[in-house]
Amino acid sequence: MNVAVNVDAREDIPVWLAYGTPVFTVLAALAVSAIALVVLDVNPVAAYATMFVDTLFTEFGLRETLTKAVPLILTGLAVYLPLKAGLFNIGAEGQLVAGALAGTWVGLNVSLPGLALVPLMFVAAAVAGGIWAGIPAYLRARWDVNEIITSLLLTFVALAIQSYLLRGPMQGGTGNFPQSERFSEAATIPELFGGVHAGLLVAVCMVVVTYVLMTKTRLGFEITFVGSNDEAAQQAGMSKFYVYLLVFVVGGAFAAMGGISEIAGAQGRYRAGFEPGYGFTAIPIALLGRNSAFKVMLAGLFFAVLFVGGSSMEVAFGVPAALVEIIQALVILFLITAEFFKSYRVGIDVKRGPAETPAQPQRGDD
């Protein structure tokens, strides 16, 4: 018996596969994670009910989910926009920190009414995040330096600067904790509804802006064209240098606004470690929603549910907090697998060989 595996490139992607990939990816990740729950002697149905039902249908869970979704959506956009140009912004975490530091400095040192101070904090954060993201963008556009490495390394630089400032010039409060002074009422992002701060409105507006940019403007067409074939785009007169700089700088500004939203909206002061990996979680968010800015928003909401529901599940069942990270890793793994099956058709051929002829006994001489 001969078994042959045939891998052929697809000419057309089935509609159900193109649109169902995010759903299949999430379901597969949850199904495999259920194995870990069973090993821990936890009922997966009860655990997922706590994670999703209790989170989405209680006032506390809904409030916390929407609050967590703000930095996740904005950092997701920070990865999504460069991704459309064929680039990988792995440094959204550093851009988020850079923006949070700049916005915090303005909030603590500038005396203005809240109506002017909060927008100024967002502008300062966006400028700082854009500059921070512009460094790997310029290196890639000018000298073709790998943006994955440079943006990631700059994240560690931003975290080191954060540690220095919160233990030195920006340290405040009592004790030796790495944190700033509390924000004044004027520097605090106002409440939108039900305990959810107005940073959510900023996130939704940035989603709309990104959607319009990518689908309704010539610039969005150029970004997509450069991402699909940069050499053809240059021959058509498009500037790869300009596109690379633009998507990274705007993406860095998005991540930075997510940082100051979390600090001035949810935390009340700058604390070291306020960002539990938002910038890195933005990678699966952008991959899940990479077909549309609105899908990025939905993916951000999903991961916000994972963060909040994961904490509830940890308390209720004693499940390690690392389970949420396992689900994130599985989402990326299954996304990569799904992309392969979207590009290639896999078939298995089983062929039976000719029947073996039984050996005839040899007759000896009489």
TrEMBL record:
A GO cellular-component term linked to this record: plasma membrane
Transmembrane segments: 16-39, 45-62, 69-92, 112-135, 147-166, 192-214, 241-260, 296-313, 319-341
Gene Ontology molecular function terms on file: transmembrane transporter activity
Localization per Swiss-Prot or TrEMBL: Cell membrane
Pfam families, A to Z: BPD_transp_2
Main location per the UniProt record: membrane
UniProt entry keywords in alphabetical sequence: Cell membrane, Membrane, Transmembrane, Transmembrane helix
Topology with respect to the bilayer: Multi-pass membrane protein
UniProt-recorded name of the protein: Sugar ABC transporter permease protein
